[in-house]
Amino acid sequence: MPRIRNTIKSLMLALVGACTLLAATTSALADKLHLKDGRVLEGEIIREGEGFVYFKVKVGSIEQEQFFMTDQIVKIERDTEAAPAKTGTETASKSSSSASKAPAADGVRRIAIMNFGPPSSWQNEIDTTVGIQISADAWKRAVPLLEKDGVTDVVVRINSGGGLLLELQRFMDVYEKEYKPKFRTVAWIESAISAAAMSPWVLEEFYFLPEGNIGACTGFSGRLNAIKGPQLEMVLYQMEEASRKGKKDPKIMRAMQIQEPLSATIDERTGQVTWFQDVTSGDHLVNPVGQVLTITANEAVKLKLGKAVVATPDELARAMGYQEYVWAGNEAIAFVDKNMRDNDKADKNWQVTAEKYQRTVGVAAQIQDRQRRGAEVGIARRHLAELKRLFSGNPNFALMYGTDEEWFREQEELLKRLMR
């Protein structure tokens, strides 16, 4: 018996030693990204698909998940001995191939985190305008891709400074009619200002990043003129309806839209929040007189507007109540991200081309020689044709830059007059 016990003890010690060695070896292994800008990042590939890679890097004690297009990458060195991906509270990461092809086991949620605006990890690579970079049509076209991958939950990760009021109803309709009936759809907020706060207001669950904030939602038209009169009343009513669909008190959004005071009382026994459109009726002053409301992450959770403050995708999944889950929807994620990048490229192209067009027309108008003037008009026509092409791809440019079909007709007439 002692010999048997000693043998078992030796085997156990050997097993512990092997596990320790394996853990040490695994922790030392890492994927590497060689980027075209000369950087070599060491970390872990979280997920990837056609044309993109999500890569987790560690900066000091902080882990950051960054997004890269494949055209930014020279080479990928993979950790060939990496342990298989797990689900549950340890980690929810899976490789893109297993997440997109293998069906989830019963009870395992398939969660897609989709970007409503570029997250801060993109380092201001593109602009964040709702209706220009951020398109409701792209989100609608992503639905079949999510369904194909068996996605059960969609996280709308928001980072945007606002945009066009015209896009509000389009987004609210997409979320209300396409997403909420098919997926558990929640918002995860980094920064949601103006149209970026209003577009997902029909969603019923809001989570916040630690630095998260939502509001203000003042509407503007033209050259940053605050909307008023019938147009303001229409948007106020529009957001009252959105509040009803999102199961929120309409007083909250109203205080974000106009200078409306707001206070609240939280029932200590039930946690229920009662809102008041003044500064004295509630125990908590939320928005003083003369200000438009902005709410921080911690305040939103305290007032039950937010469910939780979470810093990572795994924390979010656990806050949503899941123990077993996988990340999914890579194709849909890549589609929406690419659409934002393409829209941003078109937007910048529009601005450059519009400047060239105006400059060329100005030069043509100053030239007396008809032949030389005709050459400049020809260049102007090419610039105008490019503007038409960009306009057809995103008619919202008309609202952003004051152009429409009538403007194009006026420009055609102007060029004809220059040739007389």
Number of domains: 3
Major sheet strand order: 4-3-2-1-5
Percentage of residues in DSSP E strands: 15-25%
Can you tell me the residue ranges where pLDDT is under 50 for at least 5 consecutive residues?
A: 1-28, 81-103
Word description of this protein:
By secondary structure, the chain is of the alpha/beta class. The protein folds into 3 domains: 51 residues, SH3 type barrels, CATH 2.30.30.100; 245 residues, 2-enoyl-CoA Hydratase, Chain A, domain 1, CATH 3.90.226.10; 77 residues, Methane Monooxygenase Hydroxylase, Chain G, domain 1 (Up-down Bundle), CATH 1.20.58. The chain has a 5-stranded antiparallel β-sheet. The chain has a 5-stranded parallel β-sheet with strand order 9-8-7-6-17. The protein has a 3-stranded antiparallel β-sheet with strand order 14-13-15, with helices on one face. A hairpin with a 6-residue loop joins β13 and β14. The chain is globular and about 85 Å long.
In summary, what is this structure?
The protein has 420 residues and is α/β, with parallel strands linked by helices.
List keywords for this structure.
disordered N terminus, Methane Monooxygenase Hydroxylase, Chain G, domain 1, five-stranded antiparallel β-sheet, globular, 420 residues, alpha/beta, 3 domains, 13 helices, five-stranded parallel β-sheet, SH3 type barrels, 2-enoyl-CoA Hydratase, Chain A, domain 1, 17 strands, single chain
What are the SSEs and their pairings?
Layout: H1 2-28, E1 31-35, E2 40-49, E3 52-59, E4 62-69, E5 73-77, H2 96-101, E6 109-116, H3 136-148, E7 153-160, H4 166-179, E8 184-192, H5 195-198, E9 206-208, E10 213-215, E11 220-221, E12 225-226, H6 229-245, H7 250-257, E13 262-266, E14 273-276, E15 284-287, E16 294-296, H8 297-302, H9 313-319, E17 325-327, H10 330-366, H11 370-393, H12 397-401, H13 405-418
Parallel strand pairs: 6-7, 6-17, 7-8, 8-9
Antiparallel strand pairs: 1-2, 1-5, 2-3, 3-4, 10-16, 11-12, 13-14, 13-15
